[in-house]
Amino acid sequence: MTYLKLENKTVLKFEISNRHYEITAPELLPFPLRDTITDTTKEKKEDMSEIWFRNQEALSNFFYNRSLSVKRENAKYIMNQLGIKQNNDFESRYKAMMLCKALSVADNYWITDDESESWEDVNLASNPLHETLQQIALFGRSLTIEGKLHTPEITGQGAYAKAWYREDGKLFLYKANSLGGNESEREVLASRVLDCFNVPHVKYDLTEKEGRTVCRCENMNFLNTSIVDSIEYDIWCSRKGLDYFEEAKKIDSEMFYKTIVVDYLIANSDRHGGNWGFYMNNQTGKLVCMHPLFDHNNAFDEAFMKDPEGGICQLIPGKTQRQAALYAVKQCDFRCTKMIKKDIFIDELTYSTFMKRACELGLYQKQELSIFDKLCRPEKQPYMPNEIKTDNTYEYWEKARKGLAPESPDGDVAVTVVDKAVKTARHRKSRDMDWER
Fold it and tell me: Are 40 and 27 in contact (CB under 8 A)?
């Protein structure tokens, strides 16, 4: 018997060889399995073959979407060392998941063949990570893997070389450039740009890891939450006959529209369903709000910058990024909290494209500089924000805290994040007032 758990609560028991599937907490099942897997201990049909097939297919898809993609850089090194076939059949996916207990940094689901095994003994937030797999995942080194595979690398998504490290008790993701690429620099640029707006986002910094240029960010998941990406939610909405985009807006229209504005401003070509989504309350299984924006290493895409329409918008079907952003900026409270300076941009094209679009959306305005300004006042910027307002992202974190940990003993985790956000917002408010003076 295999037990699928959410933290310490068993949500599904299954034994594939005996076609046994027992749902113990339907409201807490992972979204890809909700309303698609059938409890065979309760179903009494004469011919169960279709149900058995559908259940195994649902599990197979769940494992497939949770498994390391063979297209990710260095994935083949990991698979070869672990003896995992690269043909993506059910047996290979199941073997990979059992090796690492299906542990992920994105959520608190995991599998075990011992129901008495404790979440406290396996969770990635507080237990040691597998150092050899870190080296293989980020650098592609040929090393022998030994010991228990306590790692998030087998469930890691995306195409770039990356690895998780623990530093000062926190999880950090290190992500490398492609060969000859500058994705890390673009990731950090996008982060610095968003620092100047009231948009909750993951903060990245540029650094090196053993001589390789990488960007680094802290894990955005918390102890009492799980992340549900928009692909999983889209599939669930389809099964329920719901309009996916309308349901997403019901959950968090503010972040939904801010995401559209951001993508146009930073010429983001990679807003796929795996890099935006929602926080789920682990006690109730309900989605609370969209999680902060992240994964912008394909921002400032040259083709998207040169295209006046900015490419196709992924969040409003049938609209270009420009059309969608002009509409979305009026539907949310998108505000400048700090002036953006030219020196953070990679080159003239990224700067001029961003500023042109910021002016178009009414966030900035261009001003003519005199010869005196150009010669004697180099600090004077050619673009100025129409208005600088105080940061109000603490309101976002307050909403998240209330939804993620209502009357929960784990609530202190979210409160800490809210306190940090409020402190940052107050600091920005004080700094902006000084700037205005």
Answer: no
Task: Give the 3-state secondary structure of residue 96.
Answer: helix
The CB density around residue 234, as the number of other CB atoms within 10 Å, is 17
Q: Which residues of 16-33 are buried (b: 16+ CB within 10 A; e: fewer)?
A: beeebbebeeeebbbbbb
Q: Strands 287-290 and 277-281, how do they pair?
A: antiparallel
CA 319/CA 322 separation, integer angstroms: 8
Whole-structure pTM value: 0.90
Place of tokens 């996008």: 190
Beta strands in 93-161 (DSSP E): 109-112
Rounded distance between C-alpha atoms, residue 185 and residue 192, angstroms = 11
pLDDT for 275-320, tens place per residue? Answer: 999 999 999 999 999 999 999 999 999 999 999 999 999 999 899 9
pLDDT of 435 strictly over 50: no
Strands of 16-108, DSSP E: 20-23
Residues 6+ apart with CB under 8 A from 24: 10, 11, 12, 13
Please give the Cα distance from 302 to 277 (Å, whole number).
Answer: 26
- Please check whether residue 157 is in contact with residue 69, taking contact to mean a CB–CB distance below 8 angstroms: yes
pLDDT band at 426 (very low <50, low <70, confident <90, very high): low
